[in-house]
Each structure stands twice: as C-alpha cells, then as structure tokens.
Amino acid sequence: MTTTSKASTKTTTAEWFGTAARYVSPLPLIMGFFMLVYAFWFIPAWGLLGGIIFGALAVYAVICGALAIRNIKHAVRHPSIKTPEGEAQGKKMAVLSGITYPLLWLSVIALPLLGQAQFIMQAVVIIIGLHFIPMAKIQGRRIDYVLGPISVLFGIVGVLIALNNSSDWQLAFAVAGVGGAGATFVYAFYNLIGYRKMSEQAHALPL
User: Fold this and answer.
1) How many CB atoms neighbour CB 75 within 10 A?
2) Residue predicted with more confidence, 93 or 14
C-alpha cells in the first residue's frame, strides 16, 4: 500500500508521485537510444577506437534500458492524479516541444535539399542543446543548464570542422555527437538516480 501524508495546502505525496514517476521512468531508455544515435558516428570517424567506445556505450544503454523498464513497471503501480502544477508544466513542455521538434525536422529535411547535408548532425545537437535551457526552468533541473550549453558547444565545433573541410563530414558528425552522446549519457544516469530518490521521498512501493 502506498503511504500518503496530508498537508493543508500542498498536494499529498501519493498524488504527485504517480504522474511524476510515469514521466521520469522511461527517460533513461529514451536517452540510451539517442546516445547510440549520436555515438554511431564515432565508428566511421575514429575506426577501432570509435567502435570500442560505441560498444561500451551500447552496454551502458542496455543497462539503462533494463532499469528504465523496471521503473516503468514500478510507476504504473501508482495512480496518476492530475494536479494544477503538473498540468501547467505539461502545457509549457508542449509549447517547447511544439517549437523544438518541427525546427529539428525542418533542419534535417532542408539541409540536404540545400546541399548542406554535412551540417545535419550539428544542427540536431545544437537545437536539442538549446531546448535544454528553457526545459531547465520548466522542470526545475539545474543540470540542464550544464548539459545544454555543452551540447551546443560541441555542435558549433562540428560546424567549424565542416566549414573548414566539408569532405570530412563524418568527423564533424562525430565531434558534434560527442556533445549529444555525453549529454544523454549523463541525463540517463541522472534520471535513474532521480527516480530512486523520488521513490524514497514519496514513500512509494519498493522497486
């Protein structure tokens, strides 16, 4: 049985946990997938070393995915109750996503049509990195203020490499991918730890 505590003006622990748990629990699985998309370009750029790094990251992604699935199963055992705070946050995230992902897909489609396909990965990394900054304020996560600018920095370096030598686009993709892979690597771990801490704070059912 989930334990709850009453508060005069605040939402009870059980009420906020179910909704928050459903949001946080799949994130390590999602981050692990995108980490491998970014890290794939290490192989053509850096050969054997890139392959070894990619292999290690693949193992990490599998572990994150398995733990995320465990957390998802745990999350659905708790009721998801809408709260004014949660609905307001959801609306802000919907607006942010409504700006970020159309812009991302527009870049992915438009750049090849304009003969600038060597900038696709850099554009993706920069856009995703920039979207971490307002997300930090919406979600109240200070780590996003670090991960976002780091991703953007590596994306910009990737742009500079492609501008200097457009034929070396695989290296440019790999360098930009370092930023994306690094951010998703940290974010996956952060959310695994965060889910456990959140569960303990909520006095939720055991994992």
Assistant:
1) 22
2) 93
Q: Domain segments of the chain: what residues?
A: 14-201
The one-character DSSP state at 12 is P
The reported pTM is 0.85
CA-based angle 41:126:195, to the nearest 5? 85
Given a cut of 50, whether residue 9 has pLDDT beyond it is no
Give the mean pLDDT of 109-137. 94
Q: What is the DSSP string of 58-97?
A: HHHHHHHHHHHHHHHHHHTTS-----HHHHHHHHHHHHHH
How far is residue 128's CA from residue 21's CA, in Å, rounded to a whole number? 23
Q: Distance between CA atoms of 26 and 114, rounded to whole angstroms? A: 36
For residue 206, give the 3-state DSSP assignment.
Answer: coil
Q: Read off the tokens for 90.
A: 């959801």
What integer pLDDT is reported at residue 86 of this predicted model? Answer: 75
